[in-house]
Specification:
By secondary structure, the chain is mainly alpha-helical. It has one domain. The protein is built from 12 helices and no strands. The model has no long low-confidence stretch (mean pLDDT 86).
Amino acid sequence: MDFLTAAILGLVQGLTEFLPISSSAHISIVGRVIGQDDPGAAFTAISQLGTEAAVLIYFWRDIVRIIKAWFASLAGRIPRNDPDAVLGWWVILGTFPIAILGLALQDWIETDLRSLWITATMLLVFAFVILAAERVATQRKELRDLTWKDGLAFGFWQALALIPGVSRSGGTIAGGLFMGYTREAAARYSFLLAIPAVLASGGLQLVKVFTGDALGSGTAWGPIWVATAIAFVVGYAVIAWFMRYITTHTFTPFMIYRIVLALVLFALLGMDVIQP
């Protein structure tokens, strides 16, 4: 992979990671279109560290407050039912589904699930899932209303993003809407919930690249870091815009885009223009 290709893929990662359109799907599709073939799960996971760094910086006040409250509650300095301490527990609990399924299905995730036929199908199917979630959403719950059951349910919705085409933010936000949370609350929890999962996934892939065990990495360190840096800068701008956007707008434009992209992808695959 050359630097220009890495820069393009880093830009795609930054633009799509936080929108409900699936960054892994776009990395896979764009990689094939520009002749890179599938950049692989390793490249995707490592470049996600750039966008996750953007989350850490954008939400750093929330993150520091939650971590301080969590440790303070363990030490008995504040009540165990402190809202921020409780939120810390629910983030930990919500991480279990994707951690367990990610490890159990690791080989499948890195190979068979990266078929563009599966990606196109999930882009289409989940567009209607998210549209349905918006249609039935009451949007009456905030993060202070989060329970352990809802926190765990959010985690299972996030785990669906192990399948390219679902979208981590799209899955968790859809789950939140089905459970009655506001778009902003669901999005904020989605980003917080993604932190341990993405850091663990990216860290695991870094180890596998170092040891030569990463499938589909095939990338020199220079291009990897270029892609990660670009993903960070662009991702930060997208978070700032997206958090403002969802306060007054629906996800319908993104769902229309998903449907169109899926249909175009089905057509290209059916005509053998690109390989699955």
